[in-house]
Amino acid sequence: MEILANLIDGFFIAFEPLNLGLMVVGVVVGLFIGAMPGLGSVNGVAILLPMTFLVPPTSAIIFLAAIYYGAMYGGAISSIMLGIPGASTAVATTFDGRPLALKGEADKALIAAAVASFVGGTISIILFTLFAPPLADWALAFGDHELFALMMMAFATFVGLSGDDIPKTLFSICIGLVLSSVGLDIMSGEPRLVFFDIIGFMHGINFLVLAIGIYGIGEMLWTIESTRGEPSMSKAKISVDRIVSNLKEVSGTWVTALMASFVGFFVGILPAAGATPGSLMSYGFAKTYSKTPEEFGKGKVDGVVAPEAANNAASTGAMLPMLTLGIPGSPTTAILLGGMVIWGLVPGPMLFIEQEEFVWGLIASLYAANLFAAVINIGFIPMFLWMLKMPFTILAPGIFVLCIIGGFAPTQSMHDVWLMFGFGVAGYLMRKLDYPLAPAVLAIVLGPLAEPSLRQSLLISNGDITAFFTRPISGTFMAFAIFLLLLPIIKAVRARMVGNSSQ
Predict the structure, then answer these.
(1) Is this model's pTM higher than 0.85 or not?
(2) Which residues contact 58 (CB under 8 A, 6 or more apart)?
């Protein structure tokens, strides 16, 4: 009852005129920031943080959290409409959202993304409200061994149950891991894989540059070749009947949305994990447990629902360790944490006691911001579909320019722009040769997380790899990962046995 009373008090704070106005403005701004390739919630929150010094801390955090939420919704827009991920968190949405748009069903993909984001956000906020302190303690139980085991399970999901060619999947993962290793060694600080001694490789390969290259430039090249300049996505329409029909179809994916929401939330509360691994893992799990995994990557609604529910759930989950422990769960929450320090607030368990108005006002605002983001997103669908009706001779150069901006924005280096073009050509060739792109993307995201966890784990255990199996949480993850890796062999043996018995 105490939680309910605090939440009601929080709603009174969130719906004060100033806070409500900032919430709506933040959601709209975040929606467009998330849709712009190369920006995303991190840059949006960082750019607008100085503006919050004009308002009280509670209003400031509500405004920035609304931008964060809006950006999570907005990332799906360019992924679906243009095939360019608005941010790294929306890369997995491209896998099935873009094929739906190319089939003239962009409205279905956008509605699925909005509904899934609302479901993921709502479930995660409820979990946040009810279980903040115990979940924060559970996240602390994740050491380097557990984090590496979790990453192994994510890789094994793509290998064991992706439905793709296993050797090609493994090759794709290896390429991603190699690219994730470019730059300075995390332990010694020595340069490694700095191709041709080009200085630009010293800071590593920015994930967003890879994503925009593969799914922006590569997708544009593929579309030009396959449609000869007349892409079928221009046939997208919107009507009340289509909206109702799409909502009925999306409602049939509730199991996927629930699974992805829980996965995204629990991955989000892990320090340094964030929404991108959560969305990719949820996509892999959705494909794993689907009755028709072969339809993923070809325009399946579940392939949009899973990553969108997960990345919104993870964005809320990442706030949990930030508020309760002072440990940011994602780059965006790291900026929010910096803002709290500037406002004179000390994150930690005492924050819930000493600053109840601040904490519960923020939690209540998340409920409202989640609802506003869903309504505004669905309301803007006609405008998004209007973009698709532009002639491809206008749309393609526009996509090209957005790709260049998105490739330049993260590091403001022309090296990354040229690198993006290279990834675009490579992504186009991989698609022509039928190599799966998702495992490579997963590897370059999880590689920088898995490598330090592995090396630090081995240092702690003096090189004893059995430590991954003797610890309860990591042992469970590793056992499941091994099972997934062996599953293709088990399936092949069973199929051969059934074939022999039928002869």
Answers:
(1) no
(2) 13, 19, 357, 358, 361, 362
